[in-house]
Write a structure and sequence with these properties.
206 residues; four-stranded antiparallel sheet; 16% helix; alpha+beta; 12 strands; single chain; globular; 3 helices; 2 domains; Immunoglobulin-like
Length: 206
């Protein structure tokens, strides 16, 4: 069973959302993403394939690893250790590169158990349509991991439709990712969020 943590972190006048999750037995990776305004600024991933095959492996031990990685990224955020990477991520909006994903039907993309996404991809600097962008959509937290893909037309738009998959009991989010030669962008829309885990400093010492 996969586990995960979500925490909002304030650094000065900025608020970041840190999400860490175990991708599950079929993909033994612990993935941490730092979001701001729904956009991914940076990721940290660690593979635990060898750990999963060792005698020390257990669900509780894995959960501790997930929580430790989550806490470490939060600590790095607060200490300023990630400032350069965050600045670099923000700097990708220059004219030489960078794209922007937009969901045009934010209020009506889910209806009667069916997902219908109207997506537009623009250049960040010039706001021109990006034809030929590869777009992927998925419901993060669904019981089955499935990617639904499409390619933008000359107007920089694509429509992606699929039935809503069976959902897990944890956090749920719609994630849309686009890639072109000019760059990559990702947006997410939270569908359901569990209660946030307490900060690592509040956890009892062992």
């Amino acid at each position: 069973m996969s586990s995960g943590f979500n925490t909002d972190v304030r650094v000065g006048d900025q608020v970041f959302h840190v999400q860490t999750e175990d991708r599950g037995p079929s993909r033994p990776v612990i993935d941490t993403a730092v979001y701001q305004s729904g956009r991914v600024l940076l990721r940290r991933s660690s593979n635990y394939e060898q750990f999963a095959a060792s005698p020390a492996f257990s669900a509780e031990a894995l959960r501790e690893r997930v929580e430790l990685q989550h806490s470490n990224v939060i600590g790095d955020l607060r200490s300023g250790a990630l400032a350069a990477e965050l600045a670099s991520a923000g700097g990708q909006t220059n004219p030489a590169g960078g794209i922007q994903v937009q969901l045009l039907n934010t209020g009506s993309w889910l209806s009667a158990g069916r997902v219908s996404l109207e997506v537009e991809i623009l250049g960040r600097a010039d706001q021109k349509p990006q034809a030929g962008a590869q777009v992927e959509a998925a419901i993060e937290g669904a019981l089955a991991n499935a990617l639904h893909t499409g390619t933008t037309d000359e107007a920089g738009r694509v429509k992606i439709q699929f039935p809503l998959p069976p959902l897990g009991s944890g956090d749920l989010a719609l994630v849309i990712t686009a890639k072109t030669d000019a760059g990559r962008d990702e947006i997410r829309f939270t569908m359901r969020s569990r209660a946030k885990a307490p900060p690592a400093s509040a956890a009892p010492s062992s």
